[in-house]
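Entry for the shared binder. Reason: the reviewer on the internal report wants the predicted structure included alongside the sequence.
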Amino acid sequence: MSNASKDIQSSGANPSYVIRELTEEEFKPLFEKHKNKAFENTHGYNSGGILSADELERMKELQERLGSPCRLHLGVFDDRGDFVGWSFGQQESATTFYMVNSAILPEHRRKGLYTCLLMRSLEILSAKGFQLIYSRHNVTNNAVIIPKLKAGFVISKIELDDRFGVLVHLHYYTNPHRRKIMYYRAGNLHPDEEIRQWFGI
């Protein structure tokens, strides 16, 4: 495993968890083994059961044409070394990173692990220079939406998706001025002197 690890300070009784940055090869088998346990109540369909073999092959070819975007794979491990949570995503452009999927297995939830995993992700991605970090969630997934709002994400739009239903998009701007502008745009902040200067009002 990668040695890029960082201890999690959780609010639970057992603080002996660690976050490790993994390669894609290390991450994939762990994710495939545990994803159904984390998302047993979701109703998303399996693309492989709907798309034809030709469509799947074209998608693979198009993905390969994107080159080698930046990817991040984080794993959460308990004191026995068991894989108990994760977060992964990939670069979409020169400015934007999409957080594809994050989860903590049910028996390890409510210990502050998700928040620590989120903050570690933001720390790494901000250091890499991304301006915008975003994610998409079922609109009733408060266990994820609330910690992200507390961390500085803002609701940016609602999406109707054929695979997952109604989703909310959450945006995090690493530049504090852009984050402030989003609060203003969302109606959560009255224009102060700084905002008036930026917008010429």
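Summary line for the report: The CA atoms of residues 96 and 159 lie 18 Å apart.
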